[in-house]
Amino acid sequence: MGNALRCFGGEDDHHGGGGHYPYYQPQYYSHDPTAAVPRPHQQALGRHGVSPATVGGGALRQAAGPNIGHLQWSNGVLANGVAASQYQNNTEDIDESSAEGLRDAKSYAKANPMLIQVPVLGTRRKFWRLSDNATRISRKLALILRSQHSVGKFLSAPLQVSNVWIGSTGTVKLRGVSFNGEGFSIERVRDDYKNLSKVLQALIRISGGNVAKLPPDYSGFLALLGDDNLRMKDEFLIVNNAALLPMKNRTEVFLMLHERIVKYLGRTNKAKKKSILSKLPYENDWLDTARANAQINQWVVNAQNEYKKTQSDLLRLNRNVRSHLHEYNDDDIEEILYCEWPELLAVMVKMLHLEGELEVTDIQNKFG
């Protein structure tokens, strides 16, 4: 059995990178054993979007092929054995007195709604999305699990809401858990993420949210956590999932990924670019959606080159809007774009992952 972990914390500066193990250095106490029909997340929403499965785990299996060598990481750290721990002491990982003002996740969720409803500016509709605190907590918990998996350890018992503690500054820590290396396997990794999905859904319910109204990108994230065929390399997609990005960073990430897909792959690998574009959602109605939104329509009617119903032009419109955020004095445009096309960025991230192009981007540094 692994050493008991009194309190294990995850911080944003893990970055969720793909080439550095371990991702986090916890400290152990070895002496302490213990106009169609609206979708569920919108009201009177127009026609757009695809099912959560679009960004879920099933699509990963189709594009990536069979999972050869369950215990082999994409960077080769773990092949047929377990990498040696390179932990360094970090007192920030341990909490015994709640000096940081930690509170149990249940009471935190009751006081802080995780699923919030926002108006879609430019329309009369409303949209349900995760709060930035909710996505931050989701990612930190995923980072904790991934860091343990990177050294061949998994939770000895299923993660529970009572194990999660949250600080006033946004820190997330675990209590009353232990990690075990004996019998480590891909099945144990999958079990950890499935239990994380249950905890996250429970916290949303406790906070007063209805999981039936989750935005489709976050539903896709939960589907990925529950995927029966999850591979080790897919952990990079979990901790760097677009559904977990803070709203203020989505513009920067979109422009970075657009550069990778349209410009870089357009020059170096047109087949990959074509494959990614072919999987983008909203093919049939994105232009109608843009014209129906008074805010976005400003870019449509004033375009020098008329937009057509192609996936390339969907990206072009999104890029043009984000590249000129202040042209129309609209500081809320990023949230508008997310509410209208909530799965676009998530599918871009997923497809880059499947094509082996995501880890070479800087996405792991965009969650702070």
TrEMBL record:
Start and end residues of each stretch annotated as Disordered: 1-58
> What's the protein here called?
Uncharacterized protein
